[in-house]
Structure to design on (500 residues):
């Protein structure tokens, strides 16, 4: 995968928060940590919101070619 | 039981005389064989035979040859390819089975055998046995090994779902996903989930979804049903496709009590299709809450740090070390003031002294002044033009004007004559 995944970022964010809360950093370090924390927060937020809802169904033509169509649950779910 | 058939005793005896005498009563081998065949096949059509399997052979033709036996007897049997493919469990030597079929006579060799259409294990369901056998086999091969199981993505990029598009499972899965993490991409690969060819379709779907680079988790499953209904998920071909999948797979077959081979091979087993929806995506609202909390804590830490730093700064500013320079300055200033004051005093003193000295000198000067001499009756004569005192007559001549200074006033006169003294 490309970017660090959400779980890793979340862990990183938590670590930064905990480091900040120990209060053992200098003001400069605190500012730097805060900035990287906010950056990760934004990344996480983006990860959660970036994807769009999209439900497709794969259909096969008799030729063997496949294409996708939007899937509508109500239309098809008659048993 | 063959007695009724063998009413041709006379033909049995004179075998040695075969060449001597051709009796009209003899029948040909083919004739007798055909007679046996008709009689046997009529008598033993659609029978169920209880016996133990031995000497199973499975040539590449797909037919299965075996011997059924009990304590005293043996019976040759064959399961032709079509029937064999419908047997879910594996035929093994020593297995007690009930074989359903008919006796046939194979005339070219004069042999009879049981043609088996259907075979069931004794005392246990065929499916049950098949399940046990496959489970044992795959377990031995390591298909259920935990080490092979892949972790599910925390937030999937795209979910592949292998199931019937019209079943109960897809509805449940989509509902749950929508409730937990609606904005996610899903690709449904529709398959038959029961009946002939279902297992093949499921296996193919799983294999094909592995060609999609953006899919990072697959759910394969169906809603509840009988063991027969769920059977496709107990087929080896499905198990192998799951095992070979690069993409992690969540199995979601039937209800909690239905454990299938697919469940055992899958990277994660969902007890129901609904649970698959829960396993495949996290609750977005909780994640948002979590990161917002982290953000708040970040901010809190920062403002806390800033406040502390400010307080510290104030404290330092008020500390002795920081105040010292000002103190020193003040002290210097004070000293400077003192000096200035002292300097001031000295100057005044000096001035006064000088002034006193000066007036002393002035007194002396006064006592020496020629003016006092004049007071005593003496006079000073000066040349009028330059007021210089005259001490000699050398420079004087008749007609010069002179000034005679007395104590009070002076006389200006013209020289009448100069007389040497």
């Amino acid at each position: 995968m490309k970017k660090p995944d959400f779980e890793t970022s979340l862990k990183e964010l938590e670590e930064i928060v905990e480091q900040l809360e120990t209060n053992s950093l200098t003001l400069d370090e605190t500012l730097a940590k805060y900035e990287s924390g906010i950056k990760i927060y934004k990344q996480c937020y983006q990860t959660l919101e970036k994807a769009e809802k999209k439900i497709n169904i794969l259909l096969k033509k008799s030729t063997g070619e496949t294409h996708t169509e939007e899937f509508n649950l109500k239309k098809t779910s008659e048993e | 039981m063959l007695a009724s058939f063998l009413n041709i005793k006379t033909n049995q005896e004179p075998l040695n005389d075969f060449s001597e005498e051709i009796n009209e009563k003899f029948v040909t081998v083919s004739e007798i064989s055909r007679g046996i065949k008709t009689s046997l096949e009529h008598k033993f059509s659609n029978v169920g035979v209880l016996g133990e399997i031995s000497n199973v052979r499975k040539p590449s033709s797909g037919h299965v040859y075996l011997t059924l036996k009990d304590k005293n007897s043996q019976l040759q049997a064959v399961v032709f390819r079509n029937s064999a493919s419908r047997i879910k469990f594996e035929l093994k030597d020593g297995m007690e089975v009930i074989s359903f079929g008919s006796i046939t006579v194979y005339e070219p060799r004069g042999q009879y055998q049981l043609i088996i259409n259907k075979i069931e294990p004794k005392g246990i369901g065929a499916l049950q046995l098949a399940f046990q056998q496959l489970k044992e086999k795959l377990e031995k091969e390591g298909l259920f090994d935990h080490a092979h199981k892949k972790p599910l993505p925390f937030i999937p990029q795209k979910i592949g779902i292998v199931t019937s598009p019209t079943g109960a499972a897809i509805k449940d899965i989509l509902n749950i996903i929508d409730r937990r993490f609606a904005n996610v991409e899903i690709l449904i690969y529709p398959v038959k989930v029961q009946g002939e060819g279902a297992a093949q379709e499921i296996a193919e779907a799983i294999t094909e979804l592995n060609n999609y680079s953006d899919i990072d988790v697959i759910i394969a499953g169906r809603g509840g049903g009988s063991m027969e209904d769920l059977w496709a998920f107990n087929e080896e071909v499905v198990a192998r496709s799951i095992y070979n999948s690069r993409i992690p797979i969540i199995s979601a077959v039937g209800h909690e009590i239905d454990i299938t081979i697919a469940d055992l091979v899958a990277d994660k087993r969902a007890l129901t299709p609904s649970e698959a929806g829960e396993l495949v995506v996290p609750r977005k609202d909780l994640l948002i809450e979590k990161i917002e909390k982290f953000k708040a804590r970040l901010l809190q830490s920062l403002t806390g740090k800033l406040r502390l730093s400010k307080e510290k700064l104030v404290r330092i500013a008020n500390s002795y070390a920081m105040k010292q320079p000002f103190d020193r300055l003040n002290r210097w200033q004070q000293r400077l003031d003192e000096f200035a004051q002292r300097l001031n005093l000295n100057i005044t003193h000096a001035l006064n002294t000088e002034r006193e000295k000066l007036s002393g000198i002035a007194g002396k000067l006064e006592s020496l002044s020629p003016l006092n001499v004049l007071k005593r009756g003496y006079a000073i004569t000066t040349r009028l033009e330059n007021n210089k005192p005259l001490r000699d007559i050398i420079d004087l001549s008749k007609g010069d004007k002179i000034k005679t200074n007395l104590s009070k006033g002076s006389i200006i006169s013209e020289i009448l004559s100069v007389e040497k003294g």
